[in-house]
Every structure is written in structure tokens, then in C-alpha cells.
Design goal:
With 262 residues, the chain is an alpha+beta fold. The chain has helices at residues 3-81, 93-113, 248-258, and strands at residues 117-119, 133-137, 140-145, 157-166, 174-175, 198-203, 208-212, 225-226, 243-244. The protein folds into 2 domains: 1-82; 93-261, no CATH class. The radius of gyration is 47 Å and the shape is globular. Residues 64-82 have a biased composition (Low complexity).
């Protein structure tokens, strides 16, 4: 082969080689670019997943924190809902009558067990002035009858009602509605005056106050006094003072009844 032919052959081989190399290079570059794009996609997807996981974790932590906070606050909320058993209860006249009726029903059963009688006629009076009636207790004055002189706001405690335990001359027991025949005769009309007579007064502060009358005292006004027509303390003051009853069953019963009104 002539020198010129060799040179032509070499040139052809170089061109073919370079062409193949170029194709290989281009293919390699293309594959490399596709790989990078795929890696970028995978990286982006990983970041999204990581971000989503992080958001989920943050949300779960926040929810857990809120639940924990709620659990912590629940006892406090429950504590704040606790009521003071001696906090005065505002009652309408009808509600007072309902409370007194319920207590009297309980007292009637109690009286029968003790072979005694009970009546709700714990207080009354004949002709009088226009001042409020009240009773003296260890907790201060209790308004018994409101005539707006000086009025409810002048008293910390107000009577809901009351009852009287006594022994009947005819031996009747339980609730009695006709114990008193006249204001003047008082309990002496039908009660055995040789036996104890005990008054229970129900306060709107949830306390039962008690007064045992002296032997022979038949008056319905015993234990009570009256303000003047101008709402001032006058000469007609209570002859006795009520004490907080030591009858724990009675105290518990009044609290039970008042619970529906708190």
C-alpha cells in the first residue's frame, strides 16, 4: 500500500473513532444528566417526605402538649367548681316553701321514731309593727320575716323556714298540722308542756339552728325579736339565742335538699 493510501486509512479510522467517541461521550453526558435529574427528583421527594414527617411530628407534639395541658387544667377547673356548703342560696318564696316541705317530710319520719310530733309552725305573731322579725344566732342575726324594715340586705342569713319537735297530749306522732289553735295559746293548746319543745330554724346558708324552749314556754314568738317601723333595733329583742344544731343528720338533710338549688 502506498503512503497516501495509509494516510487516508488512518484519517478514516480517526474520524470513525472520534465519531464513536463523540457518540459515547454524548451518551455518557446524557445519562449523567438524566441521573442527576433523577437524583434531584429523589432528593426533592425525600425533602418533602422529611418535611411532612417533621410537620406530623410537630403536630403530634403540639396535640400531646395540648392534651397534657388540658389534663393539668381539669383538676383546677374541677376545683373551681366546688361550692361552699355555707354559701347563702338565693331562693324564691315558692322555693323556700318547697325546701321546708321536704325537710318537714324528713323530720316527720324522724319524729315518729322518737315517738314525737313535728309541725312547721315554728314562728308566728299577732298584731305587730312594720319592722322585720329576726333571730339571734352565733352567725349573727337571721332575718325571719321580711317587711323591708330594714330589709334583706341588712342580714347575712335569712330563714328558709323551720319546724318544731314536741309531744302531743293525745299521743299523736309524726307531722301535725293543727298543733296551734290560737296565737295566745301557742303550743300549750295541744302539746304536753311537761315535755321538751325544740325549734329548728333553717338558714339559707345551709345551717340548721336549734332552740330548746324553757319548760312551760308556749309562745310562738319565743326566740324572735322585731325591728322598729323605721328599721332600727328596738326594745322587742329575742329572749333566747339559737345555736347551730348538733343534729348532724338534720344538717346533712338540709345540705342535701339545698344541693338542687345551688
Amino acid at each position: 500500500m502506498s503512503k497516501g493510501a495509509w494516510i487516508s486509512t488512518i484519517v478514516v479510522l480517526l474520524v470513525v473513532g472520534l465519531g464513536a467517541g463523540g457518540v459515547l461521550y454524548v451518551n455518557h453526558q446524557s445519562q449523567d444528566r438524566e441521573l442527576k435529574e433523577e437524583q434531584a427528583k429523589n432528593s426533592s421527594l425525600s425533602e418533602k417526605i422529611a418535611s411532612s414527617d417533621k410537620q406530623k411530628e410537630t403536630s403530634e407534639k403540639k396535640s400531646s402538649s395540648q392534651q397534657s395541658s388540658s389534663s393539668v387544667s381539669e383538676p383546677s377547673s374541677s376545683s373551681s367548681e366546688e361550692t361552699n356548703p355555707n354559701e347563702p342560696v338565693n331562693l324564691t318564696t315558692a322555693q323556700k316553701q318547697a325546701v321546708n316541705k321536704a325537710f318537714l317530710s324528713w323530720a316527720s319520719d324522724r319524729a315518729e321514731v322518737g315517738n314525737m310530733a313535728v309541725t312547721d309552725w315554728y314562728f308566728d305573731h299577732g298584731a305587730a309593727g312594720r319592722g322585720d322579725w329576726y333571730a339571734n344566732t352565733a352567725d349573727g342575726e337571721v332575718q325571719v320575716q321580711d317587711q323591708n324594715n330594714p330589709g334583706p340586705s341588712a342580714f347575712l342569713v335569712h330563714a328558709i323556714g323551720g319546724c318544731v319537735f314536741l309531744t302531743m297530749k293525745d299521743g299523736s306522732t309524726g307531722q301535725q298540722d293543727d298543733v296551734v289553735e290560737s296565737i295566745a295559746g301557742g303550743y300549750g293548746d295541744k302539746a304536753d308542756m311537761d315535755k321538751p319543745i325544740t325549734k329548728y330554724m333553717l338558714g339559707d346558708n345551709g345551717k340548721v339552728y336549734e332552740l330548746r324552749l324553757d319548760k312551760g314556754d308556749t309562745s310562738l314568738t319565743s326566740g324572735f325579736g322585731e325591728y322598729t317601723d323605721e328599721g332600727q333595733r328596738g326594745d322587742y329583742t329575742p329572749s333566747y339565742s339559737f345555736k347551730v344544731s348538733e343534729d348532724q343528720a338534720a344538717q346533712a338533710e338540709l345540705q342535701k335538699i339545698l344541693a338542687d338549688y345551688r
